[in-house]
Predict the 3D structure of the following.
Amino acid sequence: MKGRATNIAGLVLNAFMILGSLPAWPQRPTTAPPPYISSVAWSPDGTRLATGSNDSTTKIWEIKTGRELFRLNGLSGSVLSIAWSHDGKRLATGSFDNTARLWEARNGLQILNLDVDTRPVWSIAWSPDDKRLATGSVGHSAMVWNAETGKNLLSLNRYDVHGMSWSPDGKRLAMGGEEATAGVWDSETGKQLLLLHGRTGQVSSVAWSPDGNKLATGSLEQIVKVWSAETGTELLALTGLRGGTASVAWSPDGKRLALGGEAGQIRDAETGKELLILPAAHGVLSVSWSPDGTQIATGEGCNVITIWDAKTGKQVMTLDGWLRTVHGCGTFTDKNPSRMPTPYP
């Protein structure tokens, strides 16, 4: 357990290194860390946004109005990963309380609690047909589950898994984590198919391109790489980043990459050219594209969620439960579940 605890603490510390622009925690009698949004996920129909925070809250927001619809109750640790099923009917969460859970997306009722032993779940992902769910944990473990029954179908004892992504055809799983390692595995047999070489920092995020031909990996070094998903050949290295990269996401058309780190960025996926900077004031831990590719959601420090125009980089709306003060994040005021967002002109 000592090794696991060290890995957990290391990743949490690295998260705050990425969020280097986090303001000082306001004066209060507590040792709790500043709040941050660790995961954001846009619903497949584009009408809702799911967000998970290190304060153990998971919220579902209505995009049109910015109104909080409801919360997923019962989680007691940082919500590290959240994912919608492709049909939009279910949500999956991975948490620091050692649980992976499935929920009804229409009302937030819990459906399943997967038996992941005693390991925080850093990453969670649905198979393209929504019949299977993959979880990545601390403690050298990745698992594949039957999403209807909760039965464990496959266990891969590799390394601490911080990011994972299914191939569009559902036949392969890409994973990355500790030991500067990322690779591709057969999702049925668990056989390793590819090892992506050339990394020097732990892999924090893995994303498969929509056409299935490429993989993008983000790490806590100042570089993002794009690889051939067939051969494992490095195709592109995105440099000039400030700090590490906590999150990587392909645009729905596969032409752009959104990156989360000290700020949000949009890069050309073919050339690596910087297209936009999303100047999030408190760092970016998670990024998610709207299904039509016109907007990007970022999960940030101080429990801020910002919606951006993906073409202009203009802020469209901010969803948050914290008042800004000169002291930093300020005082938590999220007492009204129907509270309206902060719009931008």
User: Anything to note?
Assistant: Residues 2-343 form a domain with the Methylamine Dehydrogenase; Chain H fold (CATH 2.130.10.10). The first helix runs from residue 2 to 18.
